[in-house]
Design brief:
35% helix, Rossmann fold, seven-stranded mixed sheet, single chain, 2 domains, globular
């Protein structure tokens, strides 16, 4: 396991993308989740982490009253666990410079739209309401600008004529569960680099 990419996962809810990564790791993905951080004490992702014997740091609203102090605690925990990259998987807190500076260009985020379109917390609903024919999923590095970090990978999802928001969301989640492990595999292989122009280059 020592050669695997060691990651910390930040989550706030059910943890389905976290579970997809754990499952992929069990099937050969060279990644080890060494720490989970939950922003909420009632997140179901905590149960998933416990089931996989992965340590969990449980945060709460009062801790986030000082966002930088909260991120400092998260950084300390991630570093102590040996995390090389941080993976946000449904994490509903904006990270501060404390976390960003500790893991520069090593914090991944998943967004359920094709950035730069439909930023923010309601991307699926926004794309559906706009009547677009294609939306999708973006994996990008987090930076100080919300949903603006360097894009690592994108995958399109067709919006079908008979779609509802729920059916569209379900298909987007299916793509997320495949794309996130794929990106982590590229990173583990050393193929992902952020160039000086701020764009991501993926080597062969």
């Amino acid at each position: 396991m020592s050669d695997n990419l060691k990651i910390g996962v930040l989550l706030s809810g059910s943890g389905t993308n976290f579970q997809a990564i754990v499952d992929a790791a069990a099937n050969g993905l060279p990644v080890e989740v060494v720490q989970v951080v939950s922003s909420r004490p009632d997140a179901y992702g905590i149960e998933r982490a416990n089931g996989a014997n992965i340590p969990v740091l449980v945060m709460n609203r009062s801790k986030y009253a000082d966002a930088e102090a909260a991120d400092a605690e998260i950084v300390q925990t991630l570093e102590a666990a040996g995390a090389q990259y941080v993976v946000m998987a449904g994490y509903m807190r904006k990270v501060t410079r404390v976390l960003l500076e500790a893991f520069p260009n090593r914090i991944l985020n998943l967004h359920p739209a094709l950035l730069p379109s439909f930023k923010g917390a309601h991307a699926i609903q926004g794309a559906f309401d706009a009547g677009v024919k294609v939306t999708g999923v973006t994996v990008h590095f987090a930076n100080e600008d919300y949903d603006k970090g360097p894009i690592v990978a994108q995958r399109a999802v067709e919006v079908r004529e008979d779609d509802t928001v729920d059916t569209l969301e379900a298909r987007i989640h299916e793509v997320e569960h495949d794309l996130y492990p794929h990106v982590l595999e590229l990173i583990a292989a050393g193929r992902v680099n952020v160039e000086e122009d701020g764009k991501v280059h993926i080597s062969e």
